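Section 5: illustrative case.
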């Protein structure tokens, strides 16, 4: 497959082709961690489908926009994103995605942005989705790919790049495609204190269902602080959790009411917390720096969805 590369075949030296998410996932898989396998759609696909046919048009539209007029900049942004979302795809790319969907054998897929470089200090603050979950079939994956390709083209990122003199020709994007896990619980883990940088503790946030709500801070998760040396739980905060996200039966994400007997219960047992903390220590040791890790749990199986260096 010309455009798609299995995650377990990706090397750290390929960061400029596969982006950060895919490169770290590839390293996790090859190191033997329980990271979810899948494929990366490399920057070659973005270059052929978007950059080559559209970069001059995008550059001209940005040059014509008033960067200091929010309304005019937003109008330019809307046009550029529409060009990308409606761009025709190379037949070979469509064929590659069809083959990938068949190989993964999943009913639903997760399609995630894998950035080659951060074109704004905090991409998650752009207001645009970085991941499309519960995607149905090849047509859905192809549509999600287009939307991921459009994520660098929001007004905040365009404004930032103009001020930093980063041209549209320097923008690219890779995409990670994986089977979708309908998790029982999910969340994030920091292998150092994310506020103070204290390296003797691990912080865990968890909720029932999928973890997107935790990452987006839509509602308050369970919170655990674990001592790194002996894995003792130093702090435990279990708020009432009335709603959770799951994969809907027809695809996409559905928010539903948490069953009554789970609303005030911890989404992680003590054994789960210690298993996650142990994994966190191992991943930190492998990458030789504190990590920001996304994970999910199905029964007693923990899957690592992403890791990256922890930033404060």
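Designed sequence:
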């Amino acid at each position: 497959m010309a455009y798609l590369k299995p995650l377990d075949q990706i090397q750290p030296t390929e960061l400029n082709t596969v982006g950060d998410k895919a490169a770290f996932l590839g390293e996790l898989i090859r190191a033997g961690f329980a990271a979810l396998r899948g494929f990366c759609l490399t920057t070659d696909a973005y270059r052929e489908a978007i950059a080559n046919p559209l970069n001059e048009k995008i550059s001209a539209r940005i040059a014509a926009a008033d960067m200091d007029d929010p309304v005019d900049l937003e109008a330019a942004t809307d046009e550029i994103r529409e060009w990308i979302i409606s761009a025709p795809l190379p037949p070979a790319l469509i064929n590659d995605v069809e083959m990938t969907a068949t190989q993964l054998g999943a009913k639903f897929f997760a399609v995630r942005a894998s950035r080659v470089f951060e074109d704004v200090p905090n991409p998650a603050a752009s207001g645009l989705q970085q991941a499309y979950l519960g995607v149905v079939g090849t047509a859905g994956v192809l549509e999600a790919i287009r939307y991921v390709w459009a994520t660098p083209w929001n007004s905040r990122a365009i404004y930032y790049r103009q001020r930093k003199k980063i041209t549209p020709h320097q923008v690219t994007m890779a995409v990670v495609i994986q089977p979708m896990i309908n998790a029982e619980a999910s969340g994030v883990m920091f292998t150092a204190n994310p506020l103070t940088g204290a390296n003797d503790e691990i912080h865990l946030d968890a909720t029932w269902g999928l973890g997107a709500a935790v990452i987006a801070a839509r509602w308050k998760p369970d919170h655990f602080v674990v001592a790194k040396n002996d894995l003792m739980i130093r702090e435990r905060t279990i708020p009432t959790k009335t709603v959770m996200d799951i994969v809907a039966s027809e695809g996409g994400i559905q928010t539903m009411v948490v069953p009554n007997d789970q609303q005030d219960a911890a989404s992680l047992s003590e054994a789960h917390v210690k298993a996650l903390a142990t994994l966190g220590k191992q991943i930190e040791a492998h990458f030789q720096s504190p990590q920001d890790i996304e994970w999910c749990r199905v029964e007693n199986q923990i899957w690592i969805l992403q890791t990256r260096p922890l930033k404060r």
